[in-house]
Hints:
The chain has helices spanning 115-120, 196-204, and strands at 5-6, 20-29, 35-38, 45-49, 52-56, 59-66, 78-89, 92-96, 102-105, 124-128, 131-133, 138-142, 149-150, 158-160, 167-169, 174-185, 188-195, 209-213, 219-220. The protein contains 2 helices and 19 strands.
Amino acid sequence: MQPAVTITLSQLQTLKINQKVNVTASISLGKDKPKSVPVKSTQKMTMVKEDCILEDETGTANIHIWDGLIDKLKNGSTYECQNLNVKNFQGRTHLTRTPTTTFKEADKKLQSLQGPLLLETPEKEINVKNFKFLNKLSVFIACQACQRKITEISNHKYIKCKSCGVRQRQVECNRDASVQVKVEIEEKEVWLTAFTDTINCLLSVSSQVTLRFHDQFAKDKN
């Protein structure tokens, strides 16, 4: 088993699925009650709190806190988190605990936390009259298992995803695309990243488009 590596949260998207990491970060806890879920290995029920965000000076990450830690962690406190596990669900990378995970309270604190705002901000829906593609399409192969981008493509029949380790036939993998889009929202220019389904929608319409997003994940250049 590979030892855990110490990271900052800005590095999270570059890591492999099931990689073990250490990070020092502040935690924001949402208002939702923990829910009961079955443990895959035993089918016994346990509690998990999913509306939690870790945050350091470089970025944020969603984290799932499981029974045993839920009542011990304090909202807004900073912890040295050891042996967390990198997971991906529906294209979103998050962190969760392992049997060896520990949280040690640290003296260091962030002056301002973005976590509470991220937890409370609902998804926003707005009609867009005008948009502009800012760069060329980036076409890539998506892993059939975790849907993450496979960066190394060879001439072989089979390819292996470095994120989740699944080996698959290259011809059976979906080809996806991404592009940056500039839209005008409430008299501001906002940069968004659009993927295949959204790109097809943008190219097929002749009138205004409805986009759904969280304000914090859009790049506002004003």
